[in-house]
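[Target chain]
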Amino acid sequence: MVGGSLFIKLVKQLLPLKWKKQLEETGDIGRFTIRFFREFWRRPYEFREVVRQCFLLGYKSFPLVGITTFIIGLVLTIQSRPTLERFGAEAWLPAMVGISIIREIGPVLTALICAGKIGSSIGAELGSMKVTEQLDAMEVSGTNPFKYIVVTRIIATTFMLPVLVVTGDAIALYGSYLGVNIGDTVSFKLFYQQVFESLEYADALPAFVKSFFFGFAIGLVGCYKGYHSQKGTEGVGRSANSAVVVSSLLIFIIDLIAVQIADFLGIT
C-alpha cells in the first residue's frame, strides 16, 4: 500500500497539470458511469420521466435529423454518379449509396447531430440547475436528483438514438432515390430492390447495435458535464460546449472500436 501511494504521488508530480486534470476527469466519468448503473436498478423507476425525455430529446430532434440525412443522401448520390459513370458502373449507384448510408454514414452522422443538439441541451440544462442550486433543493426535499434527472436522460438518449438512426437512414435513402432520378429515370420499386438486394444482416446489425452505444455516450457525457458544472453562467456555457466536443470524440472512438470488433468477428 505504501509503495502504491508513493508511485501515485510520483506519477502526479511527473505528469503535466493538463494531463493530470484529464486523467482525473476520466476517473470521475468512470465513477459517474458506475453510479448510473447502480441507480438504474434501484426503485422507484421513473417511467413517466423517461417517456417525457424520449419525447423532448428524441422526437424533437427528428426534424433536424431528417433534413440533414435527406440532404446527405441527395448530395452523396449526385457526387458519386460522375465517378461511377467513368467506370461504366452507374447501375451500382443505388447499392453503393445504400450500403454507405446504412453501414456508416447514417449512424455516425445522426449521432453527431444528436451530440450537438441533445448533448449541448442536456449540459446546459443540468448546468443551470447546478449553479442555481436546484439539484441541492431536490436533495433537501427528499428527491434523488441523480435518479430523476441523470438516469432518465441517459436511458432516453440510449433508446431514442437507434430510432433516429433507422428513420434517418430511410430518409437518406429517399433523398438518394431523388438524386438518382435527377439524371436518370428509376422507379421507386426498382431503386429499393437494388438497395436491399445488396444489403446483408452484417451491414445493418453492427450499425444498429453501435447506435445504442452512441446514444449512451451522448447522454452520459452531457449529464456528467452539466451535473458537475461550476463557476456560474460561464460554467454553464463551458459544460454545454465540452459536452458536444467530448461526446463527438467518443462517437468516433466507439465507431472505431465497433469496426474492429466486427472485423474480428468476421461480420463486416
Remarks:
- The chain is about 85% helix and 0% strand.
- The radius of gyration is 22 Å.
